[in-house]
């Protein structure tokens, strides 16, 4: 049992119940109230997307084989995954074309690529108002991906 499960023992059991019984989406919200975090570039954004997807997305045997974290998985390897991510990005980006501005669009693009797999057509990705300039780039990426993968 990990620290999350020991401090919130019902969380792992409650997520699947909320999803299947009540048709609720479980959105993992990240960030907020602190300006001490930032994705410093595109490669860091992609790596963070892979980490979030492996940790909270669909269970992956390679991920498990390498001992990577799956804090929401239940007993006996029961896969528990979230339905989306919400980002509250407080850190102001520096210049208009700085490397720090590339991290979040690269992250969002990677998450959206992973989420377009057939079993995740209803995956949710959103952010707070503080990130509105970043959101414009993310929106641009979303529109591009929709055009690219449209049936």
Walk me through what this model shows.
With 151 residues, the protein is mainly alpha-helical. The chain has one domain (3-149). The chain has 6 helices and 3 strands; from the N terminus they run ααβααβαβα. α5 links the parallel β2 and β3 (124-127). α3 runs parallel beside α5 and α5 packs parallel to α6 (132-149).
Strand order of the largest sheet: 1-2-3
The CA-CA distance between the termini, in Å, is 43 Å
CA-atom Rg in angstroms = 16 Å
Count of individual beta strands: 3
Estimated helix fraction: 40-55%
List keywords for this structure.
mainly alpha, globular, disordered C terminus
Structure summary:
The protein is mainly α and 151 residues long.
Present the secondary structure layout.
Elements: H1 3-7, H2 11-20, E1 27-31, H3 42-56, H4 61-65, E2 84-88, H5 100-115, E3 124-127, H6 132-149
Parallel strand pairs: 1-2, 2-3
Helix pairs in contact: 3-5, 5-6
